[in-house]
Amino acid sequence: DAEITQSPRHKITETGRQVTLACHQTWNHNNMFWYRQDLGHGLRLIHYSYGVQDTNKGEVSDGYSVSRSNTEDLPLTLESAASSQTSVYFCASSDQFFDTQYFGPGTRLTVL
Amino acid sequence: GQQLNQSPQSMFIQEGEDVSMNCTSSSIFNTWLWYKQDPGEGPVLLIALYKAGELTSNGRLTAQFGITRKDSFLNISASIPSDVGIYFCAGQPYGQNFVFGPGTRLSVLP
After folding, report:
1. Is the pLDDT of residue A41 over 80?
2. Which residue in A has a C-alpha nearest to residue B30's C-alpha?
3. What is the mean pLDDT of residues A91-112?
């Protein structure tokens, strides 16, 4: 069955370190998204991609970057982790722009 | 940016009761989605709505796309313990990405 996976599921890191969170989908979806989820907030869009080599900034993109070298993967990189980036990160994908998004299981990141 | 309001923020109900929650926006949306999130998991799609006035069911769940296109409603009938979780709405303005509400946390008491 097609699915979307994230790794690691849990990560603890130190302030200033570079961290990369992986997202892999086997739906063959064109669109992929990264969100962060914090208490009291809905899911907030960090970056998104509508296809290979395409990346776009979302609502809360500062301190994050993504690259899309193939259809299946959209890794999220925190260039220099900050305590404010402690959060749960979700990756999602959709086939067409107006289509529903399917979410991965999430990565809980703690920055000490 | 766009914002969605969900009401109520949290609710405690008895098993067997019906549940109603809603999502409102100041902007018009073309698509409404309802998701459920269990602890430690990603959101799972429950219902998708694409047309104003549309009423769609998925088992005990029924959702409606408001006529004004600025709101949506989710009802759960005869609640059971596994309904516990956080329910999120998401709306998509024309030509823009989805916006997510802050969620309604549902607790079901036996």
Report:
1. no
2. A98
3. 90
